[in-house]
Specification:
This protein is an all-alpha fold. The protein is built from 7 helices and no strands.
Length: 152
């Protein structure tokens, strides 16, 4: 009988401990506010020596349209699927560095994708389908830039 009392006391103590962990306290502070989407996802490109063959031109030397496209690409998490250098990360995501893909894909097809034409294949619409023509042109310019061999 003594062992049964000891066992029941132990079970009660364990149950009380488990239940007390589940109780929500009123004085728990709320989690910190989330940062705006632009601050949450930023792709930082590592600097490379100029002698590396894969090095792209410095951002300052870029065409302004390409620079705007790079900014939009990084701010909208395109790299999550397509890679920070366009190398493709997910199986369904085109590799922008692939010369064959660059040759077959028309600018109009890319813009249609940005507007949501490939949503069924997993490509989300850029800005919910509300991107401007200028933003679309900039993204196309940057994607074409990613497909060019280094130094060209």
């Amino acid at each position: 009988m003594h062992n049964l009392k000891r066992f029941l006391t132990l079970c009660a103590a364990v149950a009380a401990g488990v239940l007390s962990a589940c109780v929500v306290k009123d004085n728990v502070p709320p989690p910190p506010p989330m940062k705006p989407k632009e601050e949450q996802v930023k792709t930082v490109e590592p600097t490379k020596p100029a002698t590396e063959t894969s090095a792209k031109p410095a951002e300052g030397a870029e065409d302004p349209l390409i620079a705007k496209g790079r900014e939009l690409y990084n701010a909208n998490a395109c790299a999550g699927c397509h890679g920070d250098k366009g190398q493709g990360v997910l199986p369904n995501a085109p590799k922008f560095t692939d010369a064959a893909w660059q040759q077959k894909e028309k600018d109009e097809e890319m813009i249609a994708s940005f507007k949501g034409a490939k949503a069924a294949q997993g490509m989300p619409a850029f800005k919910g389908g509300n991107g401007t023509d200028e933003e679309h042109k900039a993204l196309v310019a940057y994607i074409r830039f990613l497909g060019k061999p280094a130094g060209k």
